Predict the 3D structure of the following.
Amino acid sequence: MASQTTAVVVSNRRVGSLYYALEMDCPPVAETVEPGQFVMLRVSETLSPLLRRPFSICKSYPATHPSRAKRGHIVILYKKVGKGTEKMTGWMKGQEVDLIGPLGNGFTLPPYPAPGQVILIGGGVGIASLYPLAERVKSREVSILIGGKTEDDLLWPHNSRRLRRNLQVATEDGSLGFKGTVLDLFLALRKDPGKGETRYLYACGPMEMLKRLADLTRSERLIVQASLEARMGCGFGACWGCVVRTNDPATPYHRVCKEGPVFDLKEIIWEG
Amino acid sequence: MNSYERPDLSVRIGRITLKNPVITSSGTFGFGREFEDFIDLSELGAMIPKGISLKPMIGNLPPRVFETEGGMINSIGLQNPGFEAFVKNHLPYLEKIRTPLIINFFGNTVKEYVELARRFNEIPSISGLEMNISCPNVSRGGIVFCSDARMTHHLVRAVRKVTDLTLLVKLSPNVTDIGAMAKSCEDGGADAVSLVNTFRAMAVNIHSRKAELGNIFGGLSGPAIKPIALRMVWEVSQRVKIPVIGMGGIMKAEDAVEFLLVGASAIQTGTANLVNPRSSLEMIKGIKDYLIRNRISRVTKLTGLFLK
């Protein structure tokens, strides 16, 4: 169940050269959020900007978390891209934020032990929503692939050895890791026969990336779950503004905010 | 406690008594259920869920929304599941809520409007109907019903004949003389008019040099349109005797009071619901507080108080 609540900023700091990590005290969301779900933030108390902004939850600390100081906190990652996020960069500790969440349907975790390999693949700021998933996937054979244009685009906010060990990065300019897109890296790794068959693939990133991933995996016996991005009006299913075309004959357009943001990639029909 | 401390918020529209003058407008309220996590739906004056057509409509190509200065443009394209799926999947939820239910509906021909009105008329849990007349009349070469006062009059009369439910007509602002349109609805037998629907608008991306909306055109709503909507509600209230329901960029109680003052008997909340799902209930409280502060015993006294 989603709630509309007042979150309080705990910290808002720059990470890397492009991103900000916003940590807020927000127990109702921290307690119930599932990997892949998101929140809608009201960026201003005035009417400019008017609409809320959607953000994936990157980390959450429920009441059972060992660190007492962190309990009830959530973290989102954002990049300064427009008027709304620009305003957010000025938020200081103690700032009150009108927040709605958790929203949408998140990822379905693979069974444990998962048959074959599990791959997580993320591009750009989409990496944020893979993070809580990576923490929850318990399979032994996990690969986490993240990519960006340059080293500055990459973000993997964790020091855990397990989550680091399985991480591989790609940059388009070759400034770090594999040179190419994260999908190029994905294809290169799949040529390696030592890894065993992949059965579960999870993806987040820009629509163009997901579309190409859909093309690449169309004929395979893979379960591909992808978190989609869309311009949203409300974020909670009221306006039908953020739709994506699916193969559902009865209702072709599904709401990214309500039926999604995570979809079975094979159900998506790519338009335009 | 005297009546100034407990003002009467109820209003009457046709045969419906609303416990307060705040109605959630179609297209911004989903099918009600989307709001259940945030508000008690039984506190609303009335609910108008998403507009319904006879057959399902898949809606427009995305992107469907674009934010502008003080507003948003949408081109949802009236996506809806059609009459039968609405009655089966959404009505059972809505009819359990103790708030009058008004159904927004539309068609592509007079026959379709009449058929839908006839069917909704048979459903006891429905209190009223709101006709969306901003649709193309396919049997008249696709010109929109609301662009012609005579065509509108004919349409409203045809629908009036088949239903005794309270009948609202939702007016488009994209006309030369909205007062004349309202008059033709009144003469056709409408119980009330609601206005305004969105303003036809568009936005262009200078980098891609393409439209921001998949459908190119959309409808502008939000605070940016409020002053024009207010003027239109004032104009219409001068022309008709039936109740006028005001809307267009109402974001807070003060906005709602402005619409009441210029002649609205009730108001509809739209874009505000998307920004803040609690805004309708906050407005009800705000209107009540305004009445108390100004020692006005009932909300109906506000209607048209402007210039008096």
The CA atoms of residues 12 and 18 of chain B lie 6 Å apart. The mean pLDDT of chain B is 96.
